[in-house]
Design a protein that fits this description.
Elements: H1 5-17, E1 21-25, H2 27-36, E2 45-53, H3 55-58, E3 60-65, E4 74-77, E5 81-83, H4 90-107
Antiparallel strand pairs: 1-2, 1-5, 2-3, 3-4
């Protein structure tokens, strides 16, 4: 088991109660999106408009709105985002990201 389900459920409730949430794509995620979209410009700043849990394989994913009018939403793992540390649930997000990344590294062949 990669994720601790109680931690996931508590975090999902907090995230859903506070939507939309301002976030930023990590530089690596922004570069990957730009490459995959034939050079389309992706702002690192965005708003999380929905969250879902995809089980151990996908973890918590976020639907992002970049305010780019007409472009489809982006869905990415919460581990590819950074959040303002002043948000009341920022510590819970950081703890989830840290734990998930560590467990994924240990589970890798």
């Amino acid at each position: 088991m990669i994720d601790e389900l109680r931690q996931v459920n508590r975090l999902l409730v907090k995230l859903e109660e506070n939507l939309p949430i301002v976030a930023s794509l990590t530089p690596q995620a922004a570069a990957t999106l730009k490459d995959q979209a034939s050079g389309a410009d992706f702002s690192e700043r965005c708003q999380v408009t929905a969250v879902h849990y995809l089980g151990d394989e996908g973890g918590i994913v976020c639907r992002l709105d970049q305010g780019n009018g007409g472009r489809p939403s982006i869905v990415t793992s919460i581990t590819h985002l950074t959040f303002d540390r002043k948000q009341p649930f920022a510590r819970e997000i950081a703890a989830y990201q840290k734990n998930r990344n560590a467990r994924l590294r240990r589970a890798a062949p």
